[in-house]
Amino acid sequence: MEAHPMEHSPESTATLMERVLYEVKRVVVGQDRFLERVLVAMLAQGHLLVEGVPGLAKTLTVKTLARTVRGSFKRIQFTPDLVPSDLVGTRIYNQKSGEFGTSLGPVFANLLLADEINRAPAKVQSALLEVMQERQVTIAGETHKVPDPFVVMATQNPIETEGTYPLPEAQVDRFMMKVLVDYPTEEEEFVIAERVTGPTVDVNAVADTFQLAALQRECRAVFCDPMLMQYAVKLVGATRRPAKYDLADLEKYLTYGCSPRATIGLIEGAKALALLRGRKYVLPEDMVDLVPDVFRHRLVLSYEALAEDLTPDAVVQRLLKKIPAPDKPLAHSESPAGRG
Asked: Residue limits of the ATPase AAA-3 domain (predicted)?
């Protein structure tokens, strides 16, 4: 007897993720790009930073997703009076036994939603970011591992600056992607109103956390051609030394470029996206699709860029135009293995 569920083929992986998406979409209307990025983060074991005004179903999406994969879900509303122990837990004295016990905090969940992360002071932000990086918490010298899989989705409200503590660049870098969530279309909003005011929809669990862990292992085994890895390295390098890539005009707009985490995030994200699309190998379009999400929060723009209203996304588009993606490398790479 096997302890783990059977390994999936890329087709069955895509089918399973389609079923997950179908269940989520029975509750959440629209937001296709955002949903795809959440699934990419889950498969690639990365974390998401989400920016959007209130009421765009950010919480609902993650909560519904947790139900479909039978995972635990916790939501933390960040406020200025929060302290690190509110997140990670603390030691509690038991009067009956006369001993100290550990009460674990809400970070111990498969899917954690950190709502309005920029509302909490730096020491609370850093406590969460430590858990994201190390996937463990130390309380009174005792180490406790968070459950596996573990994905953090942090939200930021772009319209409020009063009483907020912006995340420092070094901490923002821990997030694999930053996704911008926009308003729904009129048609989507009509369906939203119809669903919210109509009968409640029950979501079915179509997978479990063991299957998700197996998919994550499978995601790491997806083939990424060295040419594509080189392309990721070039794109990241162009944000640091634009002149080297014939982009000298961008130099005055960039104070700092992307860190090596961007290269890793781009490759891991492209592998996850390829798997979602039913392939065991990465194509250039998988990587190109993710570049804005992986780069936008890592680029530190200069005052000149801000004065000219130049956004990180505009810089990314100029990079993509200048540095062409390689031709589809080894699109047939899985066939020899398949014949074996």
From this structure: 47-177
